[in-house]
Amino acid sequence: MLKEKNNIVTTKSDILNERRKNAVPAGPYNITNLYVQSAKGAIITDIDGNELIDFAGGIGMQNVGHCHPKVVKAIQEQVESSIHSCFHVAPYESYIELAERLNELTPGDFKKKTMFANSGAEAVENAVKIARKATGRSAIVSFERAYHGRTLMTMSLTSKVKPYKHGFGPFAPDVYKLPYPYYYRAEDGMTKEEVDGQILAYFERFMLEEVASDNIAAIILEPLQGEGGFIVPSAAFMQGVRNLCDKYGIVMIADEIQTGFARTGNLFAMDHFGVAPDLMTFSKSIAAGMPLSAVTGRAELMDAPGPGQLGGTFSGSPVACAAGLAVLDVIEEENLVKRAREIGDRMMEVFNSWKDKYELIGDVRGLGAMTAMELVKDRNTKEPAAEEVKAIMQETHNKGLITISAGIYSSVLRFLPPLVITDEQLEEGLAILEAAIAKVSK
Protein backbone atom coordinates (compact mmCIF):
# COMPACT_ATOMS: atom_id res chain seq x y z
CA MET A 1 0.00 0.00 0.00
CA LEU A 2 1.16 3.52 -0.78
CA LYS A 3 0.36 6.39 1.52
CA GLU A 4 -0.31 9.83 -0.01
CA LYS A 5 0.73 12.83 2.08
CA ASN A 6 1.03 16.40 0.77
CA ASN A 7 1.12 15.00 -2.78
CA ILE A 8 4.24 13.00 -1.87
CA VAL A 9 4.06 9.22 -2.10
CA THR A 10 5.27 7.60 1.13
CA THR A 11 6.11 3.91 0.90
CA LYS A 12 6.26 1.34 3.66
CA SER A 13 10.05 1.39 3.23
CA ASP A 14 10.03 5.17 3.77
CA ILE A 15 8.07 4.77 6.99
CA LEU A 16 10.32 1.99 8.22
CA ASN A 17 13.38 4.06 7.35
CA GLU A 18 12.14 6.84 9.62
CA ARG A 19 11.71 4.33 12.43
CA ARG A 20 15.22 3.06 11.72
CA LYS A 21 16.65 6.57 12.08
CA ASN A 22 15.07 6.92 15.52
CA ALA A 23 15.97 3.46 16.81
CA VAL A 24 19.26 2.45 15.13
CA PRO A 25 22.54 4.41 15.03
CA ALA A 26 23.99 5.65 11.76
CA GLY A 27 27.03 3.35 11.93
CA PRO A 28 25.34 0.21 10.53
CA TYR A 29 25.07 1.70 7.02
CA ASN A 30 22.42 0.72 4.44
CA ILE A 31 23.24 0.66 0.73
CA THR A 32 19.54 0.91 -0.14
CA ASN A 33 16.50 2.07 1.82
CA LEU A 34 14.41 -0.80 0.45
CA TYR A 35 13.27 -3.06 3.27
CA VAL A 36 13.03 -6.77 2.55
CA GLN A 37 9.78 -8.70 2.79
CA SER A 38 11.06 -11.92 1.24
CA ALA A 39 13.86 -13.27 -0.93
CA LYS A 40 14.15 -16.31 -3.17
CA GLY A 41 17.01 -17.31 -5.44
CA ALA A 42 18.29 -14.09 -7.03
CA ILE A 43 15.14 -12.02 -6.39
CA ILE A 44 14.45 -9.79 -3.38
CA THR A 45 10.91 -8.51 -2.77
CA ASP A 46 10.60 -5.40 -0.62
CA ILE A 47 7.77 -4.58 1.78
CA ASP A 48 6.08 -2.48 -0.93
CA GLY A 49 5.92 -5.44 -3.30
CA ASN A 50 8.75 -4.34 -5.58
CA GLU A 51 10.86 -7.17 -7.01
CA LEU A 52 14.60 -6.50 -7.42
CA ILE A 53 17.27 -8.58 -9.12
CA ASP A 54 20.11 -9.07 -6.68
CA PHE A 55 23.60 -8.44 -8.11
CA ALA A 56 25.02 -8.01 -4.58
CA GLY A 57 24.15 -11.34 -2.98
CA GLY A 58 24.44 -9.93 0.54
CA ILE A 59 28.02 -8.86 -0.37
CA GLY A 60 28.81 -12.40 -1.46
CA MET A 61 26.79 -14.19 1.21
CA GLN A 62 24.19 -15.82 -1.02
CA ASN A 63 26.14 -17.97 -3.48
CA VAL A 64 23.48 -20.71 -3.32
CA GLY A 65 20.72 -18.10 -3.51
CA HIS A 66 18.28 -16.68 -1.00
CA CYS A 67 16.30 -19.30 0.93
CA HIS A 68 17.46 -22.32 -1.03
CA PRO A 69 14.91 -25.06 -0.22
CA LYS A 70 17.56 -27.56 0.91
CA VAL A 71 19.16 -25.02 3.25
CA VAL A 72 15.78 -23.98 4.64
CA LYS A 73 14.85 -27.62 5.24
CA ALA A 74 18.16 -28.34 7.01
CA ILE A 75 17.67 -25.31 9.29
CA GLN A 76 14.07 -26.25 10.08
CA GLU A 77 14.96 -29.84 10.94
CA GLN A 78 17.81 -28.74 13.19
CA VAL A 79 15.74 -26.12 15.00
CA GLU A 80 13.09 -28.72 15.75
CA SER A 81 15.63 -31.01 17.43
CA SER A 82 18.12 -28.63 19.10
CA ILE A 83 18.87 -24.93 18.68
CA HIS A 84 22.09 -24.60 20.65
CA SER A 85 23.73 -26.44 23.54
CA CYS A 86 27.13 -24.69 23.15
CA PHE A 87 29.79 -26.87 21.56
CA HIS A 88 32.02 -26.39 24.62
CA VAL A 89 29.36 -27.85 26.92
CA ALA A 90 27.59 -30.57 24.92
CA PRO A 91 29.05 -31.03 21.43
CA TYR A 92 27.20 -32.35 18.38
CA GLU A 93 27.99 -34.25 15.19
CA SER A 94 27.24 -31.51 12.63
CA TYR A 95 30.22 -29.42 13.86
CA ILE A 96 32.53 -32.40 13.36
CA GLU A 97 31.04 -33.39 9.99
CA LEU A 98 31.33 -29.89 8.55
CA ALA A 99 34.92 -29.67 9.80
CA GLU A 100 35.72 -33.01 8.15
CA ARG A 101 34.31 -31.86 4.82
CA LEU A 102 36.22 -28.55 4.85
CA ASN A 103 39.42 -30.38 5.77
CA GLU A 104 38.92 -32.59 2.73
CA LEU A 105 37.83 -29.90 0.24
CA THR A 106 40.31 -27.10 0.93
CA PRO A 107 43.64 -26.83 -0.95
CA GLY A 108 46.68 -28.65 0.42
CA ASP A 109 47.75 -32.27 0.55
CA PHE A 110 48.37 -32.31 4.30
CA LYS A 111 46.40 -33.09 7.45
CA LYS A 112 44.04 -30.25 8.38
CA LYS A 113 41.72 -29.30 11.20
CA THR A 114 38.87 -26.77 11.36
CA MET A 115 37.33 -24.60 14.08
CA PHE A 116 34.17 -22.51 13.80
CA ALA A 117 33.19 -19.02 14.92
CA ASN A 118 30.36 -16.65 14.03
CA SER A 119 31.68 -13.94 11.69
CA GLY A 120 34.43 -13.34 9.19
CA ALA A 121 36.18 -10.93 11.53
CA GLU A 122 36.17 -13.59 14.27
CA ALA A 123 37.72 -16.08 11.86
CA VAL A 124 40.53 -13.65 11.04
CA GLU A 125 41.08 -12.88 14.73
CA ASN A 126 41.39 -16.59 15.46
CA ALA A 127 43.71 -17.21 12.53
CA VAL A 128 46.02 -14.49 13.90
CA LYS A 129 45.87 -16.05 17.39
CA ILE A 130 46.72 -19.48 15.98
CA ALA A 131 49.63 -18.17 13.91
CA ARG A 132 51.10 -16.27 16.86
CA LYS A 133 50.72 -19.20 19.22
CA ALA A 134 52.20 -21.69 16.76
CA THR A 135 55.22 -19.57 15.78
CA GLY A 136 55.95 -17.72 19.01
CA ARG A 137 56.18 -14.55 16.90
CA SER A 138 54.04 -11.42 17.07
CA ALA A 139 54.15 -9.40 13.83
CA ILE A 140 51.34 -9.73 11.28
CA VAL A 141 51.64 -8.46 7.70
CA SER A 142 48.66 -7.55 5.52
CA PHE A 143 48.36 -5.63 2.25
CA GLU A 144 47.37 -2.24 0.95
CA ARG A 145 43.65 -2.04 0.06
CA ALA A 146 42.94 -5.11 2.21
CA TYR A 147 39.68 -5.54 4.06
CA HIS A 148 39.49 -8.06 6.91
CA GLY A 149 36.78 -6.75 9.26
CA ARG A 150 35.70 -4.15 11.82
CA THR A 151 37.11 -5.48 15.11
CA LEU A 152 40.27 -3.94 16.56
CA MET A 153 42.68 -6.46 15.04
CA THR A 154 40.83 -6.74 11.73
CA MET A 155 40.55 -2.94 11.44
CA SER A 156 44.29 -2.82 12.00
CA LEU A 157 44.79 -5.27 9.13
CA THR A 158 42.36 -3.34 6.92
CA SER A 159 43.72 -0.63 4.65
CA LYS A 160 40.82 1.69 3.74
CA VAL A 161 40.66 4.44 6.37
CA LYS A 162 37.23 5.92 5.63
CA PRO A 163 34.79 4.72 6.70
CA TYR A 164 36.24 1.63 8.39
CA LYS A 165 39.05 3.03 10.58
CA HIS A 166 38.49 6.76 10.85
CA GLY A 167 38.46 7.91 14.47
CA PHE A 168 38.81 4.43 15.99
CA GLY A 169 42.54 4.37 16.74
CA PRO A 170 44.94 3.57 18.22
CA PHE A 171 45.05 0.24 16.45
CA ALA A 172 46.61 -3.10 17.33
CA PRO A 173 50.43 -2.96 17.42
CA ASP A 174 52.88 -5.01 15.38
CA VAL A 175 50.76 -4.91 12.21
CA TYR A 176 52.43 -3.95 8.92
CA LYS A 177 51.28 -3.48 5.32
CA LEU A 178 52.87 -4.37 2.02
CA PRO A 179 51.92 -3.29 -1.52
CA TYR A 180 49.55 -5.55 -3.45
CA PRO A 181 49.48 -5.74 -7.25
CA TYR A 182 47.14 -3.25 -8.93
CA TYR A 183 48.05 -3.71 -12.57
CA TYR A 184 45.53 -1.16 -13.88
CA ARG A 185 47.10 1.61 -11.82
CA ALA A 186 50.72 0.53 -12.13
CA GLU A 187 53.30 2.93 -13.57
CA ASP A 188 52.96 3.34 -17.32
CA GLY A 189 54.70 0.62 -19.25
CA MET A 190 55.17 -1.77 -16.33
CA THR A 191 54.32 -5.39 -17.06
CA LYS A 192 52.61 -7.69 -14.58
CA GLU A 193 55.90 -9.50 -14.12
CA GLU A 194 57.67 -6.25 -13.28
CA VAL A 195 54.96 -5.22 -10.80
CA ASP A 196 55.10 -8.62 -9.09
CA GLY A 197 58.88 -8.64 -9.00
CA GLN A 198 59.06 -5.16 -7.53
CA ILE A 199 56.64 -6.02 -4.70
CA LEU A 200 58.26 -9.36 -3.85
CA ALA A 201 61.71 -7.75 -3.81
CA TYR A 202 60.37 -5.04 -1.50
CA PHE A 203 59.05 -7.72 0.86
CA GLU A 204 62.58 -9.05 1.35
CA ARG A 205 63.94 -5.53 1.86
CA PHE A 206 61.08 -4.78 4.26
CA MET A 207 62.27 -7.63 6.49
CA LEU A 208 65.67 -5.96 6.71
CA GLU A 209 64.45 -2.40 7.15
CA GLU A 210 61.17 -2.64 9.10
CA VAL A 211 60.65 -5.94 10.93
CA ALA A 212 62.86 -9.01 11.12
CA SER A 213 61.60 -12.14 9.42
CA ASP A 214 61.95 -14.13 12.63
CA ASN A 215 59.39 -11.83 14.28
CA ILE A 216 56.72 -12.23 11.57
CA ALA A 217 54.10 -14.78 12.58
CA ALA A 218 51.88 -14.52 9.50
CA ILE A 219 51.06 -12.76 6.30
CA ILE A 220 47.35 -12.50 5.49
CA LEU A 221 45.94 -11.76 2.07
CA GLU A 222 42.76 -11.99 0.03
CA PRO A 223 43.29 -14.10 -3.10
CA LEU A 224 41.16 -11.49 -4.85
CA GLN A 225 40.75 -8.23 -2.98
CA GLY A 226 37.07 -7.60 -2.26
CA GLU A 227 36.42 -4.20 -0.74
CA GLY A 228 39.72 -3.12 -2.27
CA GLY A 229 38.13 -3.21 -5.72
CA PHE A 230 38.14 -6.84 -6.92
CA ILE A 231 41.86 -6.65 -7.67
CA VAL A 232 43.12 -9.95 -9.13
CA PRO A 233 46.83 -10.80 -8.68
CA SER A 234 48.79 -13.12 -10.92
CA ALA A 235 49.53 -16.74 -10.06
CA ALA A 236 53.22 -15.81 -10.10
CA PHE A 237 52.67 -13.21 -7.37
CA MET A 238 50.72 -15.60 -5.18
CA GLN A 239 53.34 -18.31 -5.66
CA GLY A 240 56.05 -15.78 -4.83
CA VAL A 241 54.37 -14.96 -1.52
CA ARG A 242 54.09 -18.68 -0.77
CA ASN A 243 57.81 -19.14 -1.48
CA LEU A 244 58.78 -16.28 0.82
CA CYS A 245 56.60 -17.68 3.61
CA ASP A 246 58.30 -21.06 3.21
CA LYS A 247 61.73 -19.48 3.14
CA TYR A 248 61.25 -17.55 6.39
CA GLY A 249 58.88 -19.82 8.31
CA ILE A 250 55.94 -17.41 8.05
CA VAL A 251 52.36 -18.67 8.23
CA MET A 252 50.40 -17.87 5.05
CA ILE A 253 46.75 -17.02 5.76
CA ALA A 254 44.28 -16.80 2.87
CA ASP A 255 41.16 -14.77 3.67
CA GLU A 256 38.49 -16.47 1.52
CA ILE A 257 35.55 -14.90 3.33
CA GLN A 258 34.22 -13.26 0.15
CA THR A 259 35.87 -15.48 -2.47
CA GLY A 260 35.05 -18.94 -1.14
CA PHE A 261 32.37 -21.52 -1.90
CA ALA A 262 32.30 -21.54 -5.72
CA ARG A 263 32.14 -17.75 -6.17
CA THR A 264 35.22 -17.45 -8.40
CA GLY A 265 34.66 -20.52 -10.57
CA ASN A 266 36.60 -22.81 -8.27
CA LEU A 267 35.41 -24.06 -4.90
CA PHE A 268 38.06 -21.80 -3.36
CA ALA A 269 39.88 -18.93 -5.08
CA MET A 270 43.33 -20.16 -4.05
CA ASP A 271 42.79 -23.09 -6.42
CA HIS A 272 43.27 -20.63 -9.30
CA PHE A 273 46.86 -20.00 -8.25
CA GLY A 274 48.05 -23.51 -7.44
CA VAL A 275 48.89 -22.42 -3.89
CA ALA A 276 47.94 -24.09 -0.62
CA PRO A 277 47.94 -21.62 2.30
CA ASP A 278 48.70 -22.75 5.83
CA LEU A 279 45.46 -21.31 7.22
CA MET A 280 42.24 -20.23 5.49
CA THR A 281 39.37 -18.14 6.82
CA PHE A 282 35.76 -18.50 5.65
CA SER A 283 32.37 -16.95 6.30
CA LYS A 284 29.68 -15.23 4.17
CA SER A 285 28.43 -18.00 1.83
CA ILE A 286 29.57 -20.82 4.10
CA ALA A 287 26.04 -21.13 5.55
CA ALA A 288 23.83 -19.11 3.15
CA GLY A 289 23.18 -16.30 5.60
CA MET A 290 23.38 -18.08 8.95
CA PRO A 291 26.11 -16.64 11.25
CA LEU A 292 29.03 -18.99 10.77
CA SER A 293 32.73 -18.68 10.02
CA ALA A 294 35.67 -21.05 10.02
CA VAL A 295 39.42 -21.35 10.21
CA THR A 296 40.83 -24.38 8.38
CA GLY A 297 44.52 -25.15 8.34
CA ARG A 298 47.49 -27.38 8.95
CA ALA A 299 46.73 -29.65 11.88
CA GLU A 300 49.99 -28.87 13.69
CA LEU A 301 49.21 -25.14 13.58
CA MET A 302 45.56 -25.55 14.54
CA ASP A 303 46.58 -27.68 17.53
CA ALA A 304 49.00 -25.04 18.89
CA PRO A 305 46.40 -23.29 21.12
CA GLY A 306 45.42 -25.39 24.11
CA PRO A 307 41.95 -26.31 25.39
CA GLY A 308 39.85 -23.22 26.08
CA GLN A 309 42.05 -20.88 24.03
CA LEU A 310 39.75 -20.91 20.98
CA GLY A 311 35.99 -20.79 20.57
CA GLY A 312 33.01 -18.89 21.94
CA THR A 313 29.52 -19.41 23.30
CA PHE A 314 27.72 -19.29 19.96
CA SER A 315 30.60 -20.47 17.75
CA GLY A 316 29.62 -23.18 15.29
CA SER A 317 25.99 -23.46 16.36
CA PRO A 318 24.23 -26.64 15.21
CA VAL A 319 21.74 -24.60 13.18
CA ALA A 320 24.53 -22.83 11.28
CA CYS A 321 26.46 -26.08 10.82
CA ALA A 322 23.37 -27.77 9.40
CA ALA A 323 23.05 -24.89 6.93
CA GLY A 324 26.76 -25.19 6.07
CA LEU A 325 26.43 -28.90 5.28
CA ALA A 326 23.42 -28.18 3.07
CA VAL A 327 25.35 -25.45 1.24
CA LEU A 328 28.15 -27.87 0.34
CA ASP A 329 25.56 -30.37 -0.92
CA VAL A 330 23.87 -27.73 -3.09
CA ILE A 331 27.17 -26.52 -4.58
CA GLU A 332 28.04 -30.10 -5.57
CA GLU A 333 24.59 -31.26 -6.71
CA GLU A 334 23.86 -28.15 -8.79
CA ASN A 335 27.43 -27.79 -10.06
CA LEU A 336 27.64 -24.17 -8.97
CA VAL A 337 31.39 -24.06 -9.66
CA LYS A 338 30.60 -24.52 -13.35
CA ARG A 339 27.69 -22.09 -13.13
CA ALA A 340 29.96 -19.42 -11.60
CA ARG A 341 32.23 -19.71 -14.64
CA GLU A 342 29.29 -19.38 -17.01
CA ILE A 343 27.96 -16.30 -15.22
CA GLY A 344 31.42 -14.76 -15.07
CA ASP A 345 32.14 -15.43 -18.74
CA ARG A 346 28.87 -13.77 -19.76
CA MET A 347 29.38 -10.74 -17.52
CA MET A 348 32.96 -10.22 -18.66
CA GLU A 349 31.91 -10.55 -22.30
CA VAL A 350 29.25 -7.88 -21.84
CA PHE A 351 31.44 -5.60 -19.72
CA ASN A 352 34.24 -5.69 -22.26
CA SER A 353 31.80 -4.76 -25.02
CA TRP A 354 30.59 -1.84 -22.91
CA LYS A 355 34.17 -0.74 -22.41
CA ASP A 356 34.32 -0.03 -26.13
CA LYS A 357 31.09 2.00 -25.94
CA TYR A 358 31.47 3.99 -22.73
CA GLU A 359 34.57 6.05 -21.93
CA LEU A 360 33.50 5.94 -18.29
CA ILE A 361 34.62 2.31 -17.99
CA GLY A 362 38.35 2.24 -17.38
CA ASP A 363 38.93 -1.39 -16.43
CA VAL A 364 37.06 -4.69 -16.33
CA ARG A 365 38.26 -7.55 -14.14
CA GLY A 366 37.32 -10.51 -12.00
CA LEU A 367 37.40 -14.25 -11.42
CA GLY A 368 34.35 -16.38 -12.16
CA ALA A 369 31.17 -14.71 -10.95
CA MET A 370 33.11 -12.15 -8.93
CA THR A 371 33.39 -9.33 -11.47
CA ALA A 372 33.88 -5.58 -11.46
CA MET A 373 34.17 -2.43 -13.54
CA GLU A 374 36.37 0.47 -12.47
CA LEU A 375 34.97 3.81 -13.60
CA VAL A 376 37.12 6.82 -14.43
CA LYS A 377 36.43 10.39 -15.47
CA ASP A 378 39.32 10.29 -17.93
CA ARG A 379 41.01 7.18 -19.32
CA ASN A 380 44.37 8.91 -19.61
CA THR A 381 44.56 10.32 -16.08
CA LYS A 382 42.44 7.48 -14.61
CA GLU A 383 40.79 9.96 -12.27
CA PRO A 384 38.32 7.94 -10.17
CA ALA A 385 34.62 8.43 -10.96
CA ALA A 386 33.15 7.90 -7.50
CA GLU A 387 30.15 10.20 -7.98
CA GLU A 388 29.27 8.46 -11.23
CA VAL A 389 29.36 5.09 -9.47
CA LYS A 390 26.99 6.42 -6.82
CA ALA A 391 24.64 7.78 -9.49
CA ILE A 392 24.62 4.47 -11.39
CA MET A 393 23.83 2.55 -8.22
CA GLN A 394 20.94 4.85 -7.41
CA GLU A 395 19.58 4.50 -10.94
CA THR A 396 19.77 0.69 -10.88
CA HIS A 397 18.10 0.56 -7.47
CA ASN A 398 15.27 2.71 -8.84
CA LYS A 399 14.87 0.36 -11.82
CA GLY A 400 14.91 -2.91 -9.91
CA LEU A 401 18.55 -4.02 -9.70
CA ILE A 402 20.63 -4.05 -6.53
CA THR A 403 24.28 -3.09 -7.13
CA ILE A 404 27.12 -2.20 -4.77
CA SER A 405 30.47 -0.45 -4.99
CA ALA A 406 34.04 -1.04 -3.80
CA GLY A 407 37.57 0.25 -4.21
CA ILE A 408 39.91 2.52 -2.32
CA TYR A 409 38.40 5.44 -4.30
CA SER A 410 34.81 4.07 -4.15
CA SER A 411 34.92 4.05 -7.95
CA VAL A 412 34.37 0.36 -8.65
CA LEU A 413 31.06 -1.34 -9.38
CA ARG A 414 31.30 -4.92 -8.07
CA PHE A 415 28.96 -7.79 -8.79
CA LEU A 416 28.22 -10.90 -6.72
CA PRO A 417 24.95 -12.33 -8.05
CA PRO A 418 23.68 -15.57 -6.53
CA LEU A 419 25.00 -18.48 -8.56
CA VAL A 420 21.46 -19.80 -9.00
CA ILE A 421 20.46 -16.72 -11.00
CA THR A 422 18.67 -17.68 -14.23
CA ASP A 423 19.91 -16.59 -17.65
CA GLU A 424 16.81 -14.45 -18.03
CA GLN A 425 17.37 -12.69 -14.70
CA LEU A 426 21.03 -12.15 -15.53
CA GLU A 427 20.22 -10.58 -18.90
CA GLU A 428 17.50 -8.39 -17.41
CA GLY A 429 19.92 -7.18 -14.74
CA LEU A 430 22.60 -6.44 -17.34
CA ALA A 431 20.08 -4.45 -19.41
CA ILE A 432 19.15 -2.32 -16.38
CA LEU A 433 22.83 -1.81 -15.61
CA GLU A 434 23.70 -0.71 -19.12
CA ALA A 435 20.79 1.74 -19.23
CA ALA A 436 22.06 3.29 -15.99
CA ILE A 437 25.64 3.53 -17.30
CA ALA A 438 24.41 5.09 -20.55
CA LYS A 439 22.32 7.64 -18.66
CA VAL A 440 25.13 8.66 -16.33
CA SER A 441 27.68 8.70 -19.16
CA LYS A 442 25.71 11.42 -20.90
UniProtKB/TrEMBL annotation:
InterPro entries: 4NH2But_aminotransferase_bac (IPR004632), Aminotrans_3 (IPR005814), Aminotrans_3_PPA_site (IPR049704), Class-III_PLP-dep_AT (IPR050103), PyrdxlP-dep_Trfase (IPR015424), PyrdxlP-dep_Trfase_major (IPR015421), PyrdxlP-dep_Trfase_small (IPR015422). Its EC number is 2.6.1.19, 2.6.1.22. The keyword Transferase applies. One of its GO terms (molecular function) is 4-aminobutyrate:2-oxoglutarate transaminase activity. It catalyses: 4-aminobutanoate + 2-oxoglutarate = succinate semialdehyde + L-glutamate; (S)-3-amino-2-methylpropanoate + 2-oxoglutarate = 2-methyl-3-oxopropanoate + L-glutamate. Its cofactor is pyridoxal 5'-phosphate. Keywords: Aminotransferase, Pyridoxal phosphate, Transferase. Pathway: Amino-acid degradation; 4-aminobutanoate degradation. It comes from the Bacteria. It is an enzyme of class 2 (transferase). Belongs to the class-III pyridoxal-phosphate-dependent aminotransferase family. This is (S)-3-amino-2-methylpropionate transaminase. The gene is gabT.
